[in-house]
Amino acid sequence: GRIMTLEQIIEAIGVEPYHREKAGVIYCADCMDILPKIPDKSIDLVLTDPPYGVNLGNIDNGQAKDKNQQPYTLFDDTPEYILNVCVPTISLCRVISKRIIITPGNRNMWLYPQPDDCGVWYNPAGTSRGRWGFQLSQPILYYGKDPRAGISSTASSCWGHNDSVAVIRNMGHPCPKPFTFIRWLLNKGSRETSDITLDPFLGSGTTAVAAKQLGRQFIGIEIERKYCDIAVQRLAQEILL
To answer: Global pTM?
Structure first.
């Protein structure tokens, strides 16, 4: 059953949200300032796509030069950042949430705590170059218990789920995940419409938009204001993408 309502969690956090609507809230803040205020196991699902620690935007990072990836502006996308920021964030999320799903990228996935299960997103269209050749899939790390365990079995991996180029450009983020893929993950990790989903690295708001479309409640945390504004704009659209 539900330990706390969304309203009670917002009250416990005690910080004015950057954006608030019936479906959920967005905080424009460092997630490590917000997460410690959230009561234990009050969140049903943490779903997040953290930075990958691959020096995004730098030419010597193994990515194709013609991809024209733009760097993040408020931090350096390095393995040290994963260890010092992302891993402690996920460790804290394990205290406040019943379940966690992370897409950690290939190169630094081993830095995270050992998951309870894993899957892959097989996506040849999103090929990046690894040290042993082209990587045709992205790992998915699962923590906690499958909400459908004992009820029905669904695959832990998926194929495809890509958006059009126009939709991805509309997200305005250097490394967005396809909306249809994030929606698949959110549905995988939450079963009830009363579930509360949290994304501590919200970016341009894909997790929040997927939650709203699936009738779930959400809390999003994003440190960079321009991405918060894009997320708010996407949530306001009649057709959610």
So the answer is: 0.86
In contact, 217 and 194? CB cutoff 8 Å = yes
pLDDT in tens, 119-152: 999 988 766 778 888 888 999 999 999 999 999 8
At position 224, the amino acid (one-letter code) is: E
Give the separation between CA 183 and CA 202, rounded to whole angstroms: 14
- Site of tokens 């920021």: 85
Residue 240's pLDDT is 73
Residue type, 44: D
Q: Which of 189, 186, 190 is nearest to 209 (CA)?
A: 186
Residue 150, Cβ neighbours under 10 Å: how many?
7
- CB-based burial label for 48 (10 Å; 0-12, 13-18, 19+): buried
